[in-house]
C-alpha cells in the first residue's frame, strides 16, 4: 500500500511540473486537454477508492492508527493536488461518490483552518493561543 501511495504522489508531482510546459506548446494543449482531464479524473477516483478501502481496513482493525493517519494524509494530499490540477484545467464537476471530507469546499475550509492555526501559533505573542494538550 505505501508503494502505491508513493507512486500516486510521484505521478501527481510529475503532472504539476509538466503542466506549464504543456501549456506553452500552444495548439497541442487543446488536443491533450481532454486526455489530461480524463487521466486526472481517473486518478482522483482511484484516490477516493483507496481512501474508502483504507477507512474500511481501519474500521476492521487491519491497519494501525499510526499507519492509517499517515496513509490517509498522503491520499488526501494527493486528492487535493489532483482537484487543484482539475481546477486549473477548468474542470468543475465533483463526482457523486466523492467522500464528504474531500469536496472542494471542505478541503478549502480545512486548508484555511490549518493556515489560521499555523499563523496563530507563529505570530501570536500575546499568550492567548490555546495550549497543545497532546
Derived from helix and strand composition plus strand pairing, the structural class reads mainly alpha
Secondary-structure element order, N to C: HHHH
Task: Tell me the Rg in angstroms.
Answer: 18 Å
Largest sheet: none
Structure description:
- This protein is 74% helix and 0% strand.
- Helix 1 runs parallel beside helix 3 and helix 2 (28-59) runs antiparallel to helix 3.
- It has one domain (2-120).
- The protein starts with a helix and ends in an 11-residue tail after the last helix.
- It is mostly helical and 134 residues long.
- The protein has four helices and no strands.
Question: How would you summarize what this structure contains?
Answer:
The two termini are 28 Å apart. It contains 4 helices and no strands.
Q: Topology, pairings included?
A:
Layout: H1 2-24, H2 28-59, H3 65-88, H4 104-123
Helix pairs in contact: 1-2, 1-3, 2-3
